[in-house]
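Try this one yourself first.
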């Protein structure tokens, strides 16, 4: 059982390190390479539609590419609770380092939303996971016992 645990820690360390490296490469390509922008639309129906945009070192999930600029303008100008289009609208904003969420529920019931995740946030999380797995691998009892007998 302990041998299996050390294999899991070893594989976890390698896979997490590769994922961290992939996120760093994705960040570098999308932030510094001019042709690094990528767009993907998952469905044509408005209820099930999720658009994905990779640009400027981050990946953005939204309900429609058309409204990204409007949501960016609202967030930059801090118009989160201003009246819109003749009625009152509701904004929800959530931000932690590397992750930003913004949604707008307009007075006519249409919801516009955007989730932006920097590639550096998952890169740091995967690097931490790799370090923890490596640390646990080195503290594994079977490895410690094999070192003392040889």
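Now uncover the answer:
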């Amino acid at each position: 059982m302990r041998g299996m645990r050390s294999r899991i820690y070893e594989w976890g360390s390698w896979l997490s390190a590769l994922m961290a490296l992939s996120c760093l490469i994705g960040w570098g390509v999308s932030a510094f390479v001019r042709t690094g922008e990528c767009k993907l639309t998952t469905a044509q129906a408005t209820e099930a539609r999720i658009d994905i945009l990779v640009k400027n070192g981050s990946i953005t999930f939204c309900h429609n590419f058309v409204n990204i600029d409007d949501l960016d303008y609202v967030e930059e100008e801090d118009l989160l609770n201003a009246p819109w289009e003749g009625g009152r609208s509701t904004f929800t904003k959530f931000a932690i380092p590397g992750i930003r969420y913004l949604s707008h529920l307009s007075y006519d019931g249409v919801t516009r939303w955007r989730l932006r995740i920097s590639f550096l946030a998952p890169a740091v999380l995967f690097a931490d996971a790799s370090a923890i797995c490596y640390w646990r691998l080195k503290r594994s009892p079977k490895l410690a016992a094999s070192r003392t007998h040889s």
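Discussion: The first strand starts at residue 38 and ends at 41. Helices lie at 2-32, 68-76, 120-138, 141-149.
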